[in-house]
Design goal:
This protein has 14 helices and 12 strands. The protein starts with 7 loop residues before the first strand and ends in a 6-residue tail after the last helix. The strands form 2 sheets. Strands 3-2-1-4-5-6 form a 6-stranded parallel beta sheet, sandwiched between helices. A 6-stranded parallel beta sheet has the order 9-8-7-10-11-12, sandwiched between helices. The protein is an alpha/beta fold. Helix 9 links the parallel strand 8 and strand 9.
């Protein structure tokens, strides 16, 4: 018996930004398997630029998380109902919940699609809204787990991590840093204190890069969110008068950050979305990891680009600030340079 191919597919992966970036192989797999289908992606509205330019995508379904965050309030509940009703009216015949949380399971259930595929071990009872529950061990890498859902939907896994940018965002980057690709992007911030590398070491790294420590890097662009300017102060201050250092902290949109990573010659960052963007654009990068389990959520297929110094008995909990900082402080500036230099000399991703 030959099943009818789906004609309208919804991929659900609202957040976080790094997770959205590394979900694109699911989209690529579905597009190759179902070239005539309409394939939409439900994503948090602020992260939509990360996937909006992907050629395999038909439409972005933007989830206004900020507006609906307090969904339980009488003034907000009607808007949430309107959003959920809209999902039902779109006529999806196949849904993949790649997030595996209560919220994403609710979205899947709201579509009323005849096939709703997700994880049997979804957190927060997120599996309740599914019609098909796939067993994907949490010990697997997140990308491989999500591709198991695509395979269950009839799509052979396609390990295509490529990201795409808009012309407007590329033009913005050229206007800010110029046409040359001789700059490194430094992404020094991360939400969790236990994942942060000391800012004075980032400052020393910038000095070394500007002194020619890594071939092909002559300038530096520093990025971060508006809320992270204070965190970046010890790094920004020493280079405030240096024209070779471009302060972009708090000034880039998601799309502009993507385009900046696409153009750079090297990226150095902690466990954050920028690292996954570097994978998507095949750029040389160094990822500074402490308590994170790289085998599960690290840069996919690029563990050799990760600097992590573990010893037996280490506490691997990113919410434990003290334990995480012990691990991050083991990473030295020379460790970062030693990881970067071979990539630049071998030409990995340099032509991009």
């Amino acid at each position: 018996m030959i099943s009818t191919p789906p004609t309208h597919i919804l991929l659900i992966r609202p957040s976080a930004l790094g997770d959205v970036c590394r979900t694109v192989p699911v989209l690529a797999s579905l597009r190759r398997a179902y070239p005539a289908a309409k394939i939409d992606w439900l994503v948090q509205d602020t992260f939509a630029p990360a996937i909006a330019s992907h050629p395999g995508l038909s439409e972005v379904v933007a989830f206004p998380r900020g507006k609906l965050r307090e969904w339980y309030r009488p003034s907000v509940a009607p808007e949430l109902k309107h959003f959920l009703d809209g999902l039902a009216h779109r006529g999806y015949d196949l849904v993949l919940d790649c997030q595996g949380l209560f919220r994403s399971g609710l979205f899947a259930m709201a579509t009323k699609a005849p096939r709703r595929i997700g994880f049997d071990n979804a957190a927060e009872l997120g599996w309740l809204g599914l019609t098909e529950r796939i067993h994907a061990p949490r010990s697997m890498h997140a990308v491989d787990r999500m591709l198991m859902l695509a395979e269950a939907a009839g799509a052979k896994p396609l390990y295509d991590m490529r990201l795409y940018t808009s012309g407007a965002d590329r033009a913005w980057v050229e206007g800010r840093v110029g046409p040359a690709r001789d700059f490194a992007v430094i992404a020094p911030t991360t939400r969790w204190t236990g994942k942060q590398w000391p800012m004075d070491r980032f400052a020393e790294l910038v000095r070394r890069l500007l002194a020619g420590a890594v071939p092909g890097v002559h300038r530096v662009a520093i990025v971060g969110s508006p809320a992270e300017r204070g965190q970046c102060g010890p790094l920004l201050g020493p280079f405030a008068e240096d024209a070779r250092v471009v302060d972009l902290v708090g000034t880039t949109s998601v799309g502009q950050l993507l385009a900046l990573v696409e153009r750079c010659s090297l990226l150095v960052g902690c466990d954050s979305a920028a690292v996954h963007m570097a994978v998507g654009f095949d750029r040389p990068f160094v990822a500074l990891y402490g308590p994170t389990r790289v085998e599960r959520v690290g840069p996919y297929g690029r563990t050799s680009h990760v600097v992590q110094r573990l010893i037996p008995g280490d506490i691997r909990d990113h919410k434990n600030d003290e334990a995480g900082q012990i691990l991050m402080h083991r990473i030295g500036v020379e460790d970062v340079l030693d990881c970067a230099r071979p990539q630049m000399r071998s030409g990995v991703g340099v032509s991009g």
